[in-house]
Specification:
Blueprint lengths: L2 E2 H11 L6 E4 L12 E2 L9 E2 L3 E4 L9 E8 L13 E5 L11 E4 L3 E4 L2 E4 L9 E2 L10 E3 L7 H9 L4 E4 L4 E7 L3 E2 L10 E2 L2 H12 L2 E8 L3 H11 L4 E5 L10 H7 L3 E5 L1 E4 L5 E5 L2 E6 L3 H19 L8 E7 L3 E2 L5 E9 L2 E4 L8 H5 L3 E5 L4 E2 L4 E6 L2
Parallel strand pairs: 1-20, 6-7, 14-17, 14-18, 15-16, 18-22, 20-25, 23-26
Antiparallel strand pairs: 2-13, 3-12, 4-11, 5-7, 5-8, 6-10, 9-10, 19-21, 21-22, 23-29, 24-28, 25-26, 25-27, 27-29
Helix pairs in contact: 1-6, 3-6, 4-5
């Protein structure tokens, strides 16, 4: 029975459970999702310090032409426990702790140094060029939320708080099986009726972008015995993705091969274009995804169904592709009986469909970076603002 994409997605995500978390070094956690909340252990900055190279002073004792006595020097590093009184100046460098009594920094460009004194050339206000303790981050403030992706800047923030490791979602190990007698490896010589197999590398790249680990990649001819053996090897992994062989033709043998191994099939065929031949099921702890053999169909169904499932396994909270507003460059109408995802280019606030909107049109897909969803019977006029899903 064919079901709607909303029903299919809901059923998949109801089935999926996050994997047990693991502890990684903060550098090794880049791109993973936090499995728990993290809070600041220290304020940032942790002490009042100078934002400039110059002199720490008491602002009320400064005015153009005023002479101040240089009483010490404080570099970035250990606090020398210096003090500045009215009429004093302490030579100081960026990031260095403020001397006691000083309440401002006068930049070195704004003074004239004369031996052991400086002549101030500008007015100085209290707090000028001083970074106050906690002005960036307060102690106890949340710095990383559960389910949030850990970016390079996140690792720096964690390091600034003394964290050396972090709990993240579990690793998703995946296997990819492509099927079809017509497919050959790129290095082979094509015979009449054959094409080069491309879905494996497509799916491998999509898995990599999700943060999943591709552990097995095989191609199998349209032979149920061979496919069953390949599936036995694949189901040792957490996720198995099969491309091709999930439609209703005599050579579409994936469903029967999976059932012979005891798989429970929850979804078979979804009202989505491109991508109606779609399968979801499971064998024990292994989740199974059968994608259409046409590359654009495989791509769209991966983004709409497989990607959110993998992200949930990895403890992510935000499962959807980024949605942005765009001005539509052409008129569009969906006169099919399924939701249609139009491939196109989002650039400078404009969405433009690219190439042939057919399930085999790989070149157009390669030039695209966004999808526009058109409901059944929906029309959109040129110039209207639409929401598009951006993947790149």
């Amino acid at each position: 029975m064919i079901i709607s994409e909303e029903e299919a997605r809901a059923k998949i995500l109801e089935t999926i459970r996050p994997l047990p978390p693991r502890r990684l070094s903060i550098s090794g956690a880049l791109g993973c999702f936090a499995a728990e909340d993290y809070f600041a252990q220290l304020p940032l900055p942790n002490f009042d310090n100078s934002a400039m190279d110059g002199y720490a002073v008491v602002a009320s004792s400064c005015a153009p032409g005023k002479r101040l006595r240089v009483v010490g020097e404080q570099a970035a590093g250990l606090d020398q426990q210096l003090r500045a009184s009215a009429g004093d100046a302490v030579r100081i460098f960026t990031g260095a702790p403020m001397p006691a009594g000083a309440d401002a920094i006068v930049m070195q460009e704004d003074v004239t140094r004369e031996g052991g004194e400086i002549v101030v050339n500008v007015d100085v206000d209290p707090g000028e060029f001083v970074r106050r303790r906690g002005c960036d981050l307060g102690e106890g403030q949340k710095i990383l939320a559960r389910g949030e992706r850990i970016r390079a800047a996140t690792t720096a923030l964690l390091a600034s708080q003394g964290f050396s490791d972090v709990m993240v979602g579990g690793e998703v190990s995946a296997a990819i099986i492509s099927t079809g007698d017509e497919l050959v490896k790129p290095e082979a010589k094509l015979q009449p009726g054959q094409i080069y197999e491309s879905n494996s590398v497509l799916l491998q790249g999509l898995l990599h972008n999700c943060g999943a680990a591709e552990r097995l990649m095989e191609h199998c001819r349209d032979d149920e015995e061979l496919l069953t053996k390949a599936l036995k090897r694949a189901i040792k992994h957490r996720v198995v993705i099969v491309s091709g062989g999930v439609s209703v033709g005599e050579r579409d043998i994936v469903k029967s091969a999976l059932q012979s191994l005891g798989a429970k099939i929850d979804i078979w065929r979804v009202a989505i274009k491109p991508g109606k031949p779609f399968l979801f099921g499971h064998i024990d702890e292994c989740d199974l995804f059968g994608l259409p053999g046409n590359p654009v169909s495989a791509f769209v169904t991966f983004l709409q169904f497989v990607r959110p499932a993998i992200l949930k396994m990895m403890s992510a909270v935000k499962l959807d592709l980024l949605k942005v507003s765009a001005k539509l460059l052409v008129d569009l109408t969906n006169d099919s009986d399924r939701v249609h995802y139009i491939r196109g280019k989002f650039e400078d606030g404009i969405f433009t469909p690219v190439g042939r909107q057919e399930s085999h049109a790989l070149f157009g897909l390669s030039q695209s970076n966004a999808l526009l969803r058109l409901a059944v019977g929906e029309s959109r006029k040129r110039g209207v603002i639409v929401n598009v899903q951006v993947w790149d």
